[in-house]
Design a protein that fits this description.
The strands form 11 sheets. The protein has a 4-stranded antiparallel sheet, with no helix packed on it. The protein has a 4-stranded antiparallel sheet with strand order 14-15-16-17, with no helix packed on it. Helices cover about 30% and strands about 30% of the residues. The protein has 3 domains: about 220 residues, 2-Layer Sandwich (Herpes Virus-1), CATH 3.30.40.10; about 120 residues, no CATH class; about 260 residues, Neuraminidase, CATH 2.120.10. It has about 675 residues and is of the alpha+beta class.
């Protein structure tokens, strides 16, 4: 054997079978290719240098960095490099080159290609393959030319048979003259201590201290024939064992191949079933989406047709009213007038009907995006169709109410316990005629009836600014410099402080305040903020650049209105906050230096103009505006306003009226 085994003379009964020796002897056990830069380990197994280097690195990975050896890839013998301190990537280079393998490989590589007989080529026959190589004449011969030409002139020369079936003989002959892979000298000695063959240089350099060093012939004589036969028998058993293991591995490989095919088919079947199930789910959701769309569309179509029919009828009435001959037709005029009246009433009724029944419908498909992430444990679903409906505010379809404000009572709000004249910057009118005022100068909140009866007051340690309604029995007051929102319970005869919400992250004074949907909104000298009902950090909503003394909210749709105290021409006087956006809906003009602001149950907005000495009413989008009170009505520097049903209460900042509130009736 080329790697430390025994070479037998018999070839017909070779344990290697029909496989040629050159393939087995000169093949790298790692890559199973012909050896390249062959390196021999002390156990005489040879490997490509590159393969051995990669094996050493992989073998040592995961082990301690100080590991000083590795196991042979074939026999698992523990092997140490010559220089352990060198980087492991260079350990393979330290082992001796198998020069014997190189010498065998080189001539064999020359026989890989088909070589033609030289004498036959001389004769003109170019396609006769050569079978022999003569080292002495450096020529190739076919079998006929060897006998008829070469052997006649070179009786003492035996050409080398270069056919594939005789390569093993060639290898064996070369191996019989084995040389040291390190010194290229003949292997003549054997070290029993290291169990390794060596030339005379190896013995002198590496084994001079070893005691059991004998000649190769002497050690061979020590090996009894029975030992060799026993070893060959063991090798045969080992070969049989390897064949059994290889067969078992092949069976396992075949088994997992079949398992793979079965599993792949199962995956494909499951995918088909999943697709079928998802088709069903998609159809269910599609049907729901289609049905929801159809229902919403039918409702909208019905509303549109009602409006169209009424609109066409009123347009016809308008056209008829322009008929010049109508003046002479008394009956026709009366009939047209009555028809017009009925249509107007129908229009108002339809508007009221739609205002109550109209719904804004949104359709949305929602699903958990985690189903698209492989590392998430989420059930696979197609999500759901969400149908969301909410009361829809109709566009402004008519002018503002024609009703006017009529003053019904003037109430004196200065009580004996007050040390100073009043300065009321906030007022709330509650059901039952309860009037709550916040007195900035006297630092107290007072309760009156609409008849002017004083019920009680409660002292607040800080200066008060705006007041707002939380519910029918609770108001909130903004404490000016304390940056606090204080809630107060209101009964028919008592006031009680419920809580104080300290605003932590706002440095400016707290001025206007309103409440909507569990949230307080408040204004400062420059900005608008929101803060949760239970407290917490405030969120800045909008920088208005001027102070906001008052805010109001529409409880129906959550819109918040802020008055901005400025008299700059074309500056925004009222801004609206809705769905996270802000819109300037009224500019300085008819009102200047806006203060008090409130919203009634129909969505009309009431605004006080402190420097313009008036009170206006406008639609929620600011498109319709009319003056309710002016200076000619005795209005001077209105400060705060509160609306409850058809009653309105107003306070003033003028010196003449600062101790009074005026109660009005919408008529």
């Amino acid at each position: 054997m080329a790697e430390g085994g025994f070479v037998q003379d018999q070839t017909s009964d070779n344990v290697l079978g029909s496989q040629s020796l050159d393939i087995l002897m000169l093949e790298c056990p790692i890559c199973l290719e012909q050896l390249r830069h062959p390196k021999s380990l002390p156990c005489l197994h040879s490997f490509c240098q590159e393969c051995l280097a990669s094996y050493i690195i992989n073998e040592s990975s995961g082990k301690m960095a100080s590991a000083s050896s590795f196991s042979c890839p074939v026999c698992r013998r523990d092997t140490e490099p010559l220089n352990q301190s060198e980087d492991k990537q260079r350990w393979a280079e330290q082992f001796p080159t198998n020069n014997m393998a190189i010498e065998i490989i080189q001539p064999l590589q020359n026989t890989r290609t088909l070589t033609m007989c030289k004498p036959c080529q001389k004769k003109g026959d170019m396609n006769i393959p050569a079978k022999f190589w003569c080292e002495q004449t450096q020529s190739y011969f076919c079998e006929s030319c060897k006998v008829g030409f070469h052997d006649l002139f070179h009786e003492n020369c035996e050409p080398e048979n270069i056919t594939e079936k005789n390569k093993s003989v060639t290898i064996r002959r070369k191996m019989s003259a084995t040389g040291c892979g390190k010194h290229k000298e003949k292997l003549e000695y054997y070290c029993e201590h290291h169990q390794i063959l060596g030339c005379h240089k190896c013995i002198i350099v590496d084994h001079r201290k070893c005691e059991a060093v004998t000649s190769a012939d002497d050690f061979r004589d020590k090996l009894q024939t029975t030992k060799i036969e026993n070893l060959i028998g063991e090798l045969r058993k080992c070969v049989n064992s390897m064949e059994i293991l290889i067969k078992d591995v092949e069976e396992q490989l075949q088994s997992i191949k079949e398992d793979q095919v079965t599993a792949l088919q199962s995956l494909m079947d499951l995918r088909t079933k999943i697709n079928e199930r998802f088709d069903e789910l998609q159809k269910e959701l599609t049907d729901k989406l289609t049905a929801s769309f159809k229902e919403a569309k039918e409702n909208l179509d019905v509303s549109r047709k009602k409006c169209e029919r009424l609109m066409f009828a009123m347009q016809k009435t308008l056209t008829s009213s322009q008929d010049a001959g109508l003046k002479e037709d008394a009956v026709g005029t009366i009939s047209l007038f009555q028809r017009g009246q009925a249509e107007v009433e129908s229009c108002k009724g339809l508007i009221q009907e739609l205002a109550k029944s109209s719904r804004s419908t949104s359709l949305r498909h929602e699903y958990n995006s985690d189903i698209l992430t492989l590392d998430k444990k989420t059930s696979l679903t197609m999500g759901e169709i969400l149908v969301h409906q909410q009361q829809r505010k109709l566009p402004n379809t008519a002018a503002l109410s024609e009703r006017q404000l009529k003053m019904t009572r003037k109430i004196n709000i200065k009580v004996p316990s007050d040390e100073k004249d009043c300065a009321v910057y906030g007022v709330v009118l509650l059901s039952g005629g309860r009037i709550v005022v916040g007195d900035y100068e006297n630092h107290n909140v007072k309760l009156f009836t609409e008849n002017g009866d004083f019920k009680c007051d409660i002292e607040i340690s800080e200066a008060l600014c705006d007041l707002c309604r939380v519910d029918d029995n609770t108001v909130a007051v903004a404490l000016y410099t304390d940056k606090t929102i204080c809630t107060v319970n209101v009964t028919d005869v008592t006031l009680t402080v419920l809580s104080k919400i300290k605003i932590q992250n706002v440095t400016e004074d707290c001025l206007g305040v309103t409440y909507n949907n569990n949230t307080f909104f408040f204004g400062t000298l420059t900005s608008l903020y929101s803060v949760p009902q239970d407290g917490g950090e405030a969120t800045m909503l909008h920088n208005i650049g001027s102070k906001c003394l008052h805010l109001a909210s529409d409880q129906r749709n959550g819109r918040v209105f802020a008055s901005i105290a400025t008299s700059d021409p074309d500056a925004v006087a009222v801004t609206r906050l809705s769905d996270g956006t802000h819109t300037g809906i009224l500019k300085v003009g008819v009102v200047k230096d806006t203060t008090g602001i409130d919203v009634d149950k129909e969505g009309n907005v009431y605004v006080c103009g402190c420097n313009s000495h008036n009170v206006i009413q406008m639609s929620e989008d600011g498109t319709n505006v009319r003056e309710l009170l002016t200076s000619s009505d005795g209005i001077e520097r209105p400060s705060a306003i509160s609306v409850c049903k058809d009653k309105v209460v107003i306070t003033y900042a003028s010196i003449k009226q600062q101790n009074f509130v005026h109660l009005f009736q919408l008529v």
